[in-house]
């Protein structure tokens, strides 16, 4: 039986969960001589510390008794900085103590306090909560700490950073002085040492962080990009690394909204986390990540605190963190509990020196490269396709019968090509991103000011619309074009910003062969280079999963009545996709998932037609629309602010 040093009931729970050997922090808290002692523990997120302090509590709660004896008041209290972390801790302790019959109650901000009060009145052995809500229950005399035997402060450094010092002091002073106190923190700065000195008695110091090799299970990569192509690089990283779950960090709420909307437009099943979300929206977003309906989370540092996803394979820094601690804390969300992870820093060439300073300060090994190319992504796609169970598993008899009928009317090459098209149709199109080279090129002042003017916008010109200058429209329109129609127009809030990815995805083409996009009230007309038109028509005219219809047009369109697309531009999505649906009718999600992230239009409701919104819907309620025939007030630039 694993963990022989712990109580038999907990050992059975660990064995059922497949725990064979303790992690370093778990072994340390169970070491001889630490039973019943106050502990000051340095442990990184993902090191198994929740199970560690759960095991440490057993000697106080159960002792040598064969079962846990119910108490009149809580015997253990766990304080965590965020509601997400508190709920995660409660889930871990629930399965660990399931066989003991322990009653575990959560008290966190954003939940119904009356329900929590009723649960406390019904009896609790272990209470898990956030500082503010716990203090509120204590002051209202709903939470009685008179019999508390052990208090645990989880991620104490985060709680102090968030300004909970006064609440923590109040909570600890409300408990008996002879209680046991376990303090867990990723770092032990002076304020944590002071907290331990004030509220612990002869604490045992445990340090399980390897100072010379932080995050040994994380492969670090740094990708140099042009400042105008950060978003495109993020798209290609997500396409190259097909992670079960990924998190992309941005500096501000506005950048989160902008990047999230662009990812959803391109077909990724993505959710956004920022401080403006309600608790219900936040919970829905996290649940969609846990159950696989969404695979990408775009978040700020503050909004992501306390998130614990078991299968987070990829972390992307779309904005560089402010310091080495933030870099390590962000990155440490992957590569946990012995699993491997990938961390990618997207480094604009004008911020390379800052990136190098962060890397040096964090003492991590980083591989530098340019952004993933379309060819590299296609090669990865092909390898994944050939290894897919769809290909390698043996077909059933009914499937073989269908295959035989297909081969009676189609050649093997045609059938195989159709299979490849079906595979590619569910994947977002990779972007053509340039490698700016090893070192930034010094430019004159006029050129830098021109770039800044061109880059203004919610993500500082990081979208496709702020790329290098293109050849004049007249020159592009001289390229022979075959014209097609699309069954959405201005009245459905059509916009080249999401029309271009849609056209490329349906037709299986790159954006380079798409010509002008002209939006009319009830339809959109667009050109495809003649040499690519037949292949496009073969893919696009036979039906699709996007709830739109594409047909050949009779000649070029008449005088332009709306903006000439020529590729995405800065502008909004109004009601989210078209006809008010999230994503593209909930189809075309990343790796076969719902394009809206939640399958039902994501967060929130669509805004009324004709209004711009910075709302929370995954279907595109986040865009900033320009004034024009489609309605909406012009976007007014505001000073950028970091979320706090």
TrEMBL record:
The entry's keywords: ATP-binding, Helicase, Hydrolase, Nucleotide-binding
Cellular component aspect of the GO annotation: cytosol
UniProt xrefs under InterPro entries: DbpA/CsdA_RNA-bd_dom (IPR005580), DEAD/DEAH_box_helicase_dom (IPR011545), DEAD/DEAH_RhlB (IPR044742), DEAD_box_RNA_helicase (IPR050079), Helicase_ATP-bd (IPR014001), Helicase_C-like (IPR001650), P-loop_NTPase (IPR027417), RNA-helicase_DEAD-box_CS (IPR000629)
Keyword Hydrolase assigned: yes
UniProt region (Disordered), positions on chain: 431-476, 552-578, 595-644
Helicase ATP-binding domain residues: 30-206
MF terms (GO), sorted A to Z: ATP binding; hydrolase activity; nucleic acid binding; RNA helicase activity
Biased composition (Basic and acidic residues): 436-476
Domain Helicase C-terminal: 233-378
Domain of life: Bacteria
Gly residues composition bias: residue spans: 595-604, 612-633
UniProt key word Protein biosynthesis: no
SUPFAM superfamilies the record matches: P-loop containing nucleoside triphosphate hydrolases
PANTHER family with a match to the protein in the record: ATP-DEPENDENT RNA HELICASE DBPA, ATP-DEPENDENT RNA HELICASE RHLE-RELATED
Protein family: Belongs to the DEAD box helicase family.
Protein name in the entry: DEAD/DEAH box helicase
Source species: Salinarimonas ramus
Organism taxonomic ancestry: Bacteria, Pseudomonadati, Pseudomonadota, Alphaproteobacteria, Hyphomicrobiales
